[in-house]
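Human: We require from you a standard protein entry with sequence in single-letter code and fold as tokens, and nothing else.

Assistant:
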Amino acid sequence: MIARIATALALFAVVITTGVQAAGLVAVRSVEAAPVVAVQPTRVADVVLLGAGFDAGLRQGMVFTVARSGVQIAEIVLVDLRPRASAALILQLAPDQSIRAGDTATVKTLKV
């Protein structure tokens, strides 16, 4: 189980080291939103790769909502960061939905 997550994170590291531009990752200057660039399924958990990282102000443990066409479909938590990319695990997923490349992740905020 742990080995599959480690494999996904190793793939994440390869994507980062082989070229951020080639992988379709883009630098995001604001912590407000980050594009989903890939989802790596494993036996234990799916790893969601985002096209923004530490340089954009993201930090480990931040919770994001994932939306497609303005409809919220999931919540994710950041577990690993690089300067221009990050990896997250899925906390909640709407019924009959899946996270896909091209979805948008935004920081979850509390409404007061």
